[in-house]
Design a protein that fits this description.
By secondary structure, the protein is mostly helical. 42% of the residues lie in helices and 7% in strands. It has a 3-stranded parallel beta sheet, with helices on both faces. The longest helix is centred in the last third of the chain and has 20 residues.
């Protein structure tokens, strides 16, 4: 609920985000000049169930370069979020970068921040640009529920005994599906409310596209 509230603040009138009233241009403004995504399909049964992460990311990286008109050689860093794959799928991201035609001089890193990896990747690129570390970067995320086994993320047999003696540490073994149900029940977020928020999010995205903001 706190994350939802924080997201909604981005659209308040007094926000520093451009989702609210757009203020005067500043020298340190960071702007989005291209975006792309694949279609979302059903896990295990959808048309992308046998598609590798690198094959999903490749057309997105190609489309971003084409849409923005930026020379791929000018992209200094690509940061991609991922949760389910070993090493946050850093190798898959590097493969996709090369397949999309970016040179070896473009750096790649991956981020695993549970449930916000893609958003964190975008924020990290933004912060790197604002700090003057890079001038042009790409941030995004990729995930495949079809190619991951949720039950194999952690092997309890390899954990220290003190993990099971600490309630919060032990709760980290709880599957995400159960924790989401617990959070929904604790804060009274029913399915209708979640569907309404999703619909509103799609409306905002459609309006942004129609107005040329994205």
């Amino acid at each position: 609920m706190q994350r939802i509230a924080q997201t909604n603040k981005h659209f308040a009138k007094d926000t520093t985000y451009n989702g609210g009233a757009i203020g005067p241009k500043r020298d340190d403004d960071v702007v989005i000049i291209g975006m792309a995504r694949t279609a979302m399909t059903r896990a295990k049964k959808g048309p992308q169930r046998d598609t590798g992460l690198e094959s999903m990311l490749k057309p997105c990286l190609e489309a971003v370069a084409q849409q923005s008109g930026i020379d791929k050689a000018l992209v200094e860093d690509i940061i991609i979020g991922n949760v389910l794959m070993p090493g946050a799928a850093a190798t898959n991201a590097r493969m996709a970068m090369f397949m999309a035609g970016y040179p070896e001089t473009t750096c790649v890193q991956s981020i695993n921040r549970l449930c916000s990896s893609g958003l964190q990747a975008v924020a990290t690129v933004t912060n790197a640009i604002r700090a003057g570390q890079i001038e042009i970067g790409i941030g995004g995320g990729f995930e495949s529920m079809s190619n991951a086994v949720m039950s194999d993320q952690i092997n309890p047999n390899l954990l220290g005994e003190d993990v099971f003696e600490n309630e919060n540490a032990n709760n980290c073994l709880m599957p995400m599906g159960i924790t989401s149900e617990n959070v929904a029940a604790q804060f009274g977020v029913d399915r209708a409310t979640q569907d309404a928020m999703a619909a509103e999010s799609h409306k905002k995205a459609a309006a942004a596209l129609a107005n040329g903001r994205l």
